Amino acid sequence: MDFIPGVDGPSEGVPRVLACFSNNLLRGEPLKLVDGGVSQRTFVYIKDAIEAVLLMIENPSRANGHIFNVGNPNNEVTVRELAELMSEIYCQVSGQPKLDNPTIDVSSKEFYGEGYDDSDKRIPDMTIIKQQLGWEPQTSLPDLLHTTLTYQHRTYAMAIKQVITKSVASR
Fold first, then answer.
1. For labelling alongside 69, which of 100, 108, 136, 165 has CA 20 to 30 A away?
2. What angle do CA 46, 130, 18 make, to 5 degrees?
3. Is the pLDDT of residue 113 over 90?
4. Cβ(104)–Cβ(50) under 8 Å?
């Protein structure tokens, strides 16, 4: 998952997209879409990933010598679609209203700095893991996000408010 800046990780640095968006949602800030949020990503629920790893461990004769992708190609979205879905689900789990401007576009240079390079699409090929172990992920993206954002709201909302209050008080 990564970290929430200033709460369970460094105050500086850029966490991965889920943690980055979660951090902004918890703080009531717009989600930053790098280069318009057109990059595509897939997300797998940790419970599904653990199930896949356990199958590898429990079935060495079918797993040894193979390289497996563990992911969920059914959960493919653009970063923009992810931002919209996360905003909608976070409003449901937190009871907070949606921001008037829930996203803002930023350039990759502005967000990451000079020289950043990323792939536009990361979709796992599930052929080998399905053939060898019969494994397929089960958790949909909305369900994954609902569970994750509920946990994060319960775990981090008060800590974020304390960080924001300290920041405002020290000005």
1. 108
2. 25
3. no
4. no
Backbone angles phi, psi at 75, to 5 degrees: -100, 35
pLDDT tens sequence across 119-135: 777 789 999 999 999 99
106-145 in b/e burial notation, b at 16+ Cβ within 10 A? beeeeeeeeeeeeeeeeebebeebeebbebebebebeebb
Give the Cα separation of 126 and 128 in Å (integer).
6
Q: What pTM value is reported for the model?
A: 0.82
SS3 string, the chain, reads CCCCECCCECCCCCCCHHHHHHHHHHHCCCEEEEHHHCCEECCCCHHHHHHHHHHHHHCHHHHCCCCCCCCCHHHCEEHHHHHHHHHHHHHHHHCCCCCCCCEEEECHHHHHCCCCCCCCECCCCCHHHHHHHCCCCCCCHHHHHHHHHHHHHHHHHHHHHHHHHHHHHCC
Tell me which range, 89-93, 95-99, 104-108, 161-165, is most confidently predicted by mean pLDDT. 89-93
In sequence order, the β-bridge partners of residue 33 are 105
- Residues 81 and 21: their CA atoms lie apart, in Å, by 12
